[in-house]
Amino acid sequence: DIVLTQSPLSLPVTPGEPASISCRSSQSLLHSNGYNYLDWYLQRPGQSPQLLIYLGSKRASGVPDRFTGSGSGTDFTLKISRVEAEDVGNYYCIQVLETLPSFGGGTKVEIK
Amino acid sequence: QLVESGGGLVKPGGSLRLSCAASGFTFSHYNMDWVRQAPGKGLEWVSSITDTSVYIYYADSVRGRFTISRDNAKNLLYLQMNGLRVEDTAVYYCARDGAELGTEFDLWGQGTLVTVSS
Q1: Which whole number is the average pLDDT over A59-64?
Q2: Please, is A57 exposed, middle or buried when counting C-beta atoms within 10 Å of its C-beta (0-12, 13-18, 19+)?
Q3: Which percentage of chain B shows pLDDT scores above 70?
Q4: Quick check: B100 pLDDT over 80?
Q5: What confidence score (pLDDT) does residue B12 get?
Q6: Res. B13: pLDDT tops 90
Q7: Measured between CB atoms, does A5 come within 8 Å of chain B?
């Protein structure tokens, strides 16, 4: 089974400053089609999760361009270029390479 | 949109059936999933079903106890939960798989709370 490890667990951020979350996989998520099967979700307080990034780096519809997904193989990063107040919440990565997907443990982003 | 229903309080060993009503898109064209979140915990994928129900998958934690199904004529997704355990207590979300490669959950419901307690 593929295990995803997110870091940090908690990330205090200052509005207007950049932020970065890491997701490391126990196995390569690079598919033979060239895509990395790694997605990112944001769950704001009291809300359902929402898709931010899919296939490692593709921004979902309506997601601001301050969110960028990067990485390949086993190491992935979600970057927020300039954090806004609405970006607080829990961020999760998920591997969808295997038929049984698995989420990372989550990273809580909060305003300092 | 996706709207879940059917959650509630049930005793250990009991059963519950969740429903997810889809609208605003052609339900029969999409694979669907259930994802759950225990109180104060992270997300856990539970089960998935392809558009025509040919392929069905379950997390190890629910296999043999939960059954996913769908009715494309009624635009409904179901999760039949039997042999419920205290550790099944969670908010259950239904989610739609994306159209491009079906690898992402691009639409989520608001969730329905299942509480397993004596």
Answers
A1: 96
A2: middle
A3: 100
A4: no
A5: 98
A6: yes
A7: no
Distance CA A44, CA A52 (A): 12
Percent of chain A with pLDDT over 90: 99
Chain B residues near residue A61 by CB distance under 8 angstroms: 106
Dihedrals φ, ψ of B27, to 5°? -55, -40
Is A9 within 8 Å of chain B by CB?
A: no
B113 touches chain A (CB under 8 A): no
User: What torsion, rounded to 10 degrees, do the Cα atoms A90, B16, B61, A21 define?
Assistant: -10
* Structure tokens given for B100: 């491009």
As a whole number of angstroms, the distance between CA B9 and CA B4 comes to 15
Question: Are A90 and B101 within 8 A, CB to CB?
Answer: no
Residue B60, both tokens: 């190890």
Token pair belonging to B32: 């669907």
* CA angle (B94 as vertex; A29, B1 as ends), nearest 5: 115
In sign, the C-alpha dihedral spanning A78, B38, B60, B100 is: negative
**Unique residue bearing structure tokens 């609208």:** B23
Query: What pLDDT, on the 0 to 100 scale, is given for residue B71?
Result: 98
- B57 → closest Cβ in A51, A100, A104: A100
Nearest to B75 by CA among B9, B27, B12, B13: B27
Residue among B91, B81, B80, B94 nearest B23 (CA): B94
